[in-house]
Write a structure and sequence with these properties.
Structural class: alpha+beta
Shape: globular
Radius of gyration: 12 Å
Number of strands: 4
Number of helices: 5
Strand content: 15-25%
Distance between the termini: 33 Å
């Protein structure tokens, strides 16, 4: 869990994804549509991707991707991020993390 948590804390927005996951793609598109520039780790393209995926599962992520960190905090996956978006709280979190300025 140390590697995922460390990577998640390095930038305002971090997304753990898989390049062939359409839901991950949708959430990368959603977050960038607000002007954020997330750091994206494509687990299927990294040499330590399986280790990172095991760490995400250990953190309670099922399925493991997408997993979104905002402001050094694991926000969650697609259900949690979409819920925040529908409640109007996703943009607030991105602003608080200084990921967007609008």
């Amino acid at each position: 869990m140390d590697t995922v948590t460390s990577l998640g804390a390095q930038k305002p927005v971090v997304i753990f994804s898989k390049s062939n996951c359409c839901i991950s793609h949708s959430f990368k598109t959603l977050i960038t549509s607000f002007g954020a520039n997330p750091t994206v780790y494509e687990l299927d393209e990294l040499s330590n991707g399986q280790q990172l995926e095991r760490e995400l599962v250990a953190l309670g992520r099922r399925p493991s991707v997408p997993a979104v960190f905002i402001g050094n905090e694991l926000v969650g996956g697609s259900n949690e991020v979409m819920s925040l978006h529908l409640k109007g709280k996703l943009v607030q979190m991105l602003r608080k993390a200084k990921a967007i300025w609008v």
